[in-house]
């Protein structure tokens, strides 16, 4: 087998974890807890003996979900609720909601009423990372721990938290190592594969993920040669994003889609929880320090992070993709546009739907934006 085939097989093995997640999760005896924000402390759920998995809302949203909330909710939230109401996660015991935006807050309330058999847990996420906010978030985590201890009739001891921190840090380190190739200018993973790897890390099957990601790194390290970066790199920013049609459109122009500044990208695996600090305080500090979403009170924190990514990945232009009705990302756009333009970075704004299939108009806009920029 040549090394390119070996690398492709290893990528597929990792991505398959997400593709086959429901079957794999159903086969596991542990309770499963879903989540919809990457600021959910997976370590605590693992230490409670549960498997934390991200709900990605892959199915088109139903009229029932739109009637329950409102048709003017973002399509990610509506798709998640549709999956819940249709029993797609019937193997799960409950869902942990983090106050990542008002729509997810309302999703928590609708879930508690309309998804029978699931417990709905709620965590308030502060909008900054001051010491006071970290202490407050840690107090929220202690409440969640007490609730999970009652639910599963087991103590969540420091040792269990320590093991969970080690497992999650290992996943982060492996994806960071994979990502090092992209930052150094090698095109190891396409935009869609990058998202696939991150989604695989969020299925909760941590040991399997760590094993497969390590095998992928091994395959890359022994590969004869790796493709080099394309002449133009476009970073996608904005709302929840995993639209393969848009990535394909970008990559068909000859540009490279950099899926870093999204929750299915670098935002998920950045940093590490301090393994030597008191575990709950360390988990609270980690999730607040890495919080750079539009929900953050100070937009400059988000902006600085975005510009760091622009430099780290050698980004040439930005597509700011907002899900329709996502006010959280919409209201920041004028300021972000101004700051990116000041850095002479061309920006294309697109408003779309989570699972839209008819994207002909969007395709034309992306082509028209990129073609003059690609030399
Ligand atoms: S896409 Fe926007 S509105 Fe929807 S969950 Fe994300 S931040 Fe909230």
Q: How does this structure look, described?
A:
With 375 residues, the protein is of the alpha/beta class. It contains 17 helices and eight strands. The strands form two sheets. A four-stranded parallel sheet has the order 2-1-3-4, sandwiched between helices. Helix 1 (3-19) packs across helix 9 (191-201). The two termini are 36 Å apart. Iron/sulfur cluster binds at residues 74, 76-77, 101, 103-104, 239-240, 323, 326, 328-329. One of its GO terms (molecular function) is iron-sulfur cluster binding. InterPro entries: FldB/FldC_alpha/beta (IPR010327).
Judging from the principal axes of the Cα atoms, what is the shape? globular
Backbone CA Rg: 20 Å
Low-confidence stretches: none
Number of helices: 17
Strand arrangement in the largest pleated sheet: 2-1-3-4
Largest sheet properties: 4 strands, parallel
Share in β-strands: 5-15%
* Average pLDDT number: 95
- Tell me roughly what share of residues is in helical segments: 40-55%
Catalogue the ligands.
iron/sulfur cluster
Task: Label the structural class.
Answer: alpha/beta
Order of helices and strands: HHEHEHHEHEHHHHEHEHHHEHHEH
* Count of individual beta strands: 8
Question: Distance between the terminal alpha carbons, to the nearest Å?
Answer: 36 Å
InterPro entries: FldB/FldC_alpha/beta
Pfam families: HGD-D
GO molecular function: iron-sulfur cluster binding; metal ion binding
Keywords: Iron, Iron-sulfur, Metal-binding
């Amino acid at each position: 087998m040549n090394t390119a085939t070996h690398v492709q097989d290893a990528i597929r093995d990792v991505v398959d974890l997400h593709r086959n997640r429901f079957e794999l999760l159903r086969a596991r005896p542990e309770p499963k807890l879903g989540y919809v924000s990457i600021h959910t402390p997976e370590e605590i759920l693992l230490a409670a003996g549960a498997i934390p998995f991200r709900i990605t809302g892959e199915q088109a949203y139903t009229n029932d979900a739109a009637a329950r909330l409102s048709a003017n909710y973002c399509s990610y939230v509506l798709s998640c609720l549709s999956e819940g109401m249709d029993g797609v996660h019937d193997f799960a015991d409950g869902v942990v909601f983090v106050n990542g935006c008002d729509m997810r807050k309302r999703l928590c309330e609708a879930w508690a009423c309309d998804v029978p058999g699931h417990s709905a847990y709620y965590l308030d996420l502060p909008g900054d990372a001051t010491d006071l906010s970290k202490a407050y978030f840690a107090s929220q985590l202690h409440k969640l721990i007490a609730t999970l201890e009652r639910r599963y009739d087991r103590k969540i001891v420091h040792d269990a938290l320590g093991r969970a921190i080690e497992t999650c840090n290992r996943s982060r380190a492996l994806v960071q190592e994979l990502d090092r190739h992209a930052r150094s200018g090698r095109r190891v993973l396409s935009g869609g594969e990058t998202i696939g790897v991150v989604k695989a890390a969020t299925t909760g099957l941590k040991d399997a993920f760590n094993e497969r990601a390590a095998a992928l790194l091994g395959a890359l390290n022994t590969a004869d040669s790796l493709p080099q970066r394309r002449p133009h790199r476009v970073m996608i920013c904005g709302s929840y994003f995993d639209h393969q049609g848009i990535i394909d459109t970008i990559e068909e122009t000859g540009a490279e889609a950099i899926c870093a500044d999204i929750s299915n990208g670098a935002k998920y695996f950045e940093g590490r929880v301090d393994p030597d600090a008191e575990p709950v305080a360390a988990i609270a500090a980690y999730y607040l320090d890495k919080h750079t979403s539009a929900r953050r009170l100070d937009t400059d924190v988000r902006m600085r992070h975005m510009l760091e990514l622009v430099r780290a990945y050698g980004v040439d232009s930005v597509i700011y993709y907002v899900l329709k009705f996502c006010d959280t990302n919409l209201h920041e756009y004028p300021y972000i546009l101004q700051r990116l333009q000041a850095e002479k970075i061309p920006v294309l704004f697109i408003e779309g739907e989570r699972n839209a299939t008819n994207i002909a108009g969007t395709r034309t806009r992306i082509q028209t934006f990129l073609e003059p920029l690609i030399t």
